[in-house]
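Module 6 notes. Inverse folding takes a fixed backbone as the condition and produces residue identities as the prediction. Think of it as a translation problem where the source language is geometry and the target language is the twenty amino acids. Below is one complete input and output pair. Work through it position by position during the lab.
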């Protein structure tokens, strides 16, 4: 996959491979970045936010060589049908490093850092996500 990014110095071409180094399935993790929404489809700004977050994370994860963005979805939360969320899914080989990278990218890019939740689970296993970061203290729950 190729991503073209324009900068003040010109255009840069980023080549993103699905994996820089193929590792075992047991060494990978799902990471979900979640934003709360006010409606199932989100606003125009929510869709812009999704596009920007995906763009910045694709570049940052590829540059760090620790993973890739696997997709996103907007809609109702499974456990609370009256709540809505934007979920952005990543696959990574380094859980803690990826969490820190995602937090830094979102904060430095000013992409609503004060509203995020981050959760992870081992890749390829039928487990539940474990909340690793929440936008405010006292938030302990996470569900898709």
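Target side of the pair, the amino acids:
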């Amino acid at each position: 996959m190729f991503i073209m990014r324009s900068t003040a110095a010109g255009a840069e071409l980023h080549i993103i491979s699905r994996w820089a180094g193929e590792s075992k399935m047991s060494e990978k993790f799902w990471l979900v970045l979640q934003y709360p929404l006010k409606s199932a489809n989100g606003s125009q700004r929510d869709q812009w936010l999704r596009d920007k977050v995906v763009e910045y994370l694709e570049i940052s994860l590829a540059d760090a060589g620790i993973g890739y963005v696997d997709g996103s979805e907007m809609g109702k939360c499974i456990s609370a049908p009256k709540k809505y969320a934007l979920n952005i899914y990543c696959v990574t080989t380094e859980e803690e490093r990826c969490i820190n990278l995602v937090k830094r990218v979102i904060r430095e890019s000013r992409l609503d850092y004060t509203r995020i939740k981050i959760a992870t689970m081992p890749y390829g296993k039928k487990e539940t996500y474990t909340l690793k970061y929440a936008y405010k203290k006292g938030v302990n729950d996470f569900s898709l």
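Reference fact for the lab report: The helical segments are 44-64, 95-108.
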